[in-house]
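Write out a record, focusing on structure:
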Amino acid sequence: MTGFAKKLPALCILIITACVSTMNISEDYSPAVLIQRAQEASDRNRYKTALQYYQALYDRSGYNTDMKITAEYEIAFIHYKQKKYQQARQELNAVLEYYNSPDAELLPQQFRRLAQIVLESITEKERGQKPSK
């Protein structure tokens, strides 16, 4: 048996797992439940699951900008925790773009400040410095 043939069963399992790993999230879940489930998954370092819940929150938000910002920030923060700094930076800058609108004062302000803090941390990490508090 060749080396490739020996690895084939494991490769097949990996491919099948990747194909079926998307969760089926109940349409009945409220935004609060989606956020709670995402936070629980993130607290357990189950980032893929958390991302799926936040993506569901985003997809189901319709015109609710507050929920969209919440989902976008949390997705970016997970990418930051995964050390995907370039991706997180782009996503955090997209969150900050919401605050360049005439209605910015009506938006949840905590995400503006949190996005700024995480962006500063990314910059410091990329420079090899400890983030300041």
In short: The mean pLDDT is 86.
